[in-house]
Amino acid sequence: MCRHLGWLGRPRTLAELVLQPPYGLLVQSYAPRRQKHGLLNADGWGAGFFDGTTPRRWRSAAPLWGDASFASVAPALASHCVVAAVRSATVGMPIEASAAAPFTDGTWLLSHNGVVDRTALPGVTAAESVCDSALLAAAIFESGVESLGAVVAEVGASDPAARLNILVANGTRMLATTWGDTLSMLHSADGVVLASEPYDDDPRWVDIPDRHLIETSGGEVRLTALDTAP
Ligand code: GLN
């Protein structure tokens, strides 16, 4: 299980969001607090952000804690919308930068915490990697992010062992699903953080219940239960 983080609000630097919090993605790369699958997230990382409406990414197959170049530049990269992740590769998946989230279709940045049987994703074309998460991202992009909840429920029905926590943003909207793993939200006057686990001990963090879709835009948050009918 990887760990991911999304931000939508006033511009903040990647250092502020990813590196500086006491239990942020940097610390989660070697000592996550709530990870249920895997012990650490050493198989790469990715930081994506919107520059206006253009998604930009910096990804790596190496551990985040060893990246002095990112640590040097991250304080100078600020954005109103960020999707970042640290990766613990599922056994059998390639360890390469192109398998690290966030994935993109040129409009959205998408991260996946979890695992899915690739045979439950038939007909996917043009994925960034053969990694299960890259195929799932491609499937969601092909169906349209509007149908995120339906795609997750459908894939979850065809692979009951799947864990499908998705985080996806386009600069003005951010959506996430909970399906088998943890997700927490910190909603403040400055914006909304969605993260696999709280990055500090702020008492305003709330846990999102499993099998839900959460969507935020314009400072509003909406939570809906996903359809889990067989
Ligand atoms: N299955 C994905 C991968 O191999 C995601 C792994 C995870 O969430 N740890 O990268």
UniProtKB/TrEMBL annotation:
InterPro entries cross-referenced by the UniProt entry: EgtC, EgtC-like, EgtC_Actinobacteria, Gamma-glu_amide_hydrolase, Ntn_hydrolases_N
Enzyme class, spelled out: hydrolase
Keyword Hydrolase: yes
One of the GO BP terms on file: ergothioneine biosynthetic process
Keywords, ordered alphabetically: Glutamine amidotransferase, Hydrolase
Origin superkingdom: Bacteria
GO molecular function: hydrolase activity, acting on carbon-nitrogen (but not peptide) bonds, in linear amides
Pathway info: Amino-acid biosynthesis; ergothioneine biosynthesis
Catalytic activity: gamma-L-glutamyl-hercynylcysteine S-oxide + H2O = S-(hercyn-2-yl)-L-cysteine S-oxide + L-glutamate
Enzyme nomenclature, EC number: 3.5.1.118
Function as written in the Swiss-Prot or TrEMBL entry: Catalyzes the hydrolysis of the gamma-glutamyl amide bond of hercynyl-gamma-L-glutamyl-L-cysteine sulfoxide to produce hercynylcysteine sulfoxide, a step in the biosynthesis pathway of ergothioneine.
HAMAP family recorded: EgtC
Matches recorded under PANTHER family: GAMMA-GLUTAMYL-HERCYNYLCYSTEINE SULFOXIDE HYDROLASE, GLUTAMINE AMIDOTRANSFERASE DUG3-RELATED
NCBIfam families according to UniProt: ergothioneine biosynthesis protein EgtC
Protein name as catalogued: Gamma-glutamyl-hercynylcysteine sulfoxide hydrolase
Organism: Mycolicibacter hiberniae
